[in-house]
Amino acid sequence: MSTLSVPPVPTSPRDDAIQLYRAFKGLGCDTAAVVNILAHRDAMQRSLIQQEYRTMYSDDLSKRLASELSGKLEVPIFTAVLLWMHDPAGRDAIVIRQALLADVTNLNGATEVICSRTPSQIQLIKQNYHSKFGVFLEQDIEGHTSGDHKKLLLAYVSTFRYEGLEVDREMALKDAKDLYKAGEKKLGTDEKTFIRIFSERSRAQLGAISPAYHDMQ
Known about the structure:
It contains 13 helices and no strands. The chain is an all-alpha fold.
């Protein structure tokens, strides 16, 4: 979830905390003021605001936001504001949890987050997931997904992948051939081959596989 913009001159977390407190007071919450402040701060600034708010008012800003804004904003905006208050790994953990436990499991949402993160980012997500929800991410994937989709997500969250920029061209060509045989040249699809390659290869390596694969078509 990206922020809109950050002021060129750093703002004071203390001043922001005071402005938010004032926005909460009175007969109704000044939602425009709240959104305007939080939408124009980056993750570090919002973290400092939360610390100042807790220090000054002995209150949890995230819980106060949930209470004050509930029913006053459209659901997507309300959700975005609450997610802004978490660091990237914590935000990803919440998005995945909501996707897996929704009334209609939103595998696209969980898959987009998990498959677009580096191994080191996934490790942070897994730590946040267990800390926030008291269950391991792998357990929720196991319990709320099925079939090849389950295998893909479990492979992504448990397999080590190189994160550097170096590429093995020979391996890329071999992987491209294996993918072609597993898909285009096969009646049906050999999902096991796709899962193995996509979960084990680095982002740079996958970038080298793509043109090699297209050359075969």
